[in-house]
Amino acid sequence: MKTEWTLKILWGSLLLAGLAFPLVASAMEMEDCLGCHSEIDVVGEALLVDAVKFEHTVHAELGCATCHSSVTDEHPDDGAAVSRADCLDCHQEVGDQYMQTAHAENATCGDCHDPHQAHGLDAVSASDMNEQCSQCHENAAVVEQHSEWLPQASLHIAKLPCITCHTSSEEYKIVLHISQKQEDRALSGYEISKYEDLKVYSGAKEIKGLIDINKDNFISLAELRTFNLNPAYKALHLDGTLFPSEASHDLTTLDNRYDCSFCHASGPGSMQTSFLALPTPDGSFARIDVEEGAVLDALYGTPNFYMTGSTRSASLNIIGFIIICCGFIMPIGHGTLRFLTRKNRKH
What we know:
By secondary structure, this protein is α/β, with parallel strands linked by helices. The chain is built from 14 helices and 6 strands. A hairpin with an 8-residue loop joins strand 1 (172-181) and strand 2.
């Protein structure tokens, strides 16, 4: 009898615990949090979270309560302080790399990365990356320092993300963006197109249809040629840059980055492959594979992206070869003719 009552009490306790646990676990859903924190009039600028950008991050998959575990269904009326997880709780390996650098003494994770807008390496542009660096490193000072050894330092710094060189990644990838002419500028420069810019051209269709004509998530050389020659896109062109293959917080500059041939040579396999990064509504980018060899084709692949020592044109190579051959034919032919007619010229 005593055993029976003990079991009933035990099962009752487990039932109550089972009912109570989901109430605590689901005290505040992400939708509830964003309902207030996406409104500047409700929470102010300091606590504002861009719901569209946040919902497309990896952190959104974890939910708000994963990092802010103290929040209850009574928040904010309960007056309790909101807990905040440490980045190193999940990113310990990254933290170990970063703590070995000089940056660790001057900047925390949050100084460079907004946890509510955190994206992977594939989803950001070079200009977005360099904006983080420019918070501390003034562009003029960086150019002056690099000019001591790097030819055309200003051009390199304008076209490359800083981490292309300041990284422990051994390899890199070529990433193409669609850039748009800025008519409001005196010199009419180009800037990477935003999602809204390209929607003007695509209308109701997906923007990738501007260049991925058959919508197979693969950009062929024929599609690149069609895009480049389309008069409707005369204000658009493909611009390229080099990204490290792996994200790293070890900011060591490897010795091969001081060697011009690391980038300006057609031999490495990375020069044969490239990706097109298209903007998305949330401000990030999505990459699409491009047919091998696009970057090496100066006329039809990427006519506005030229890398000295790397970019090639098969047509121009043939024309150049013919010119060289003609240059040899003239003296050789003339010399041969004189040799064959030497007896007739004795007198």
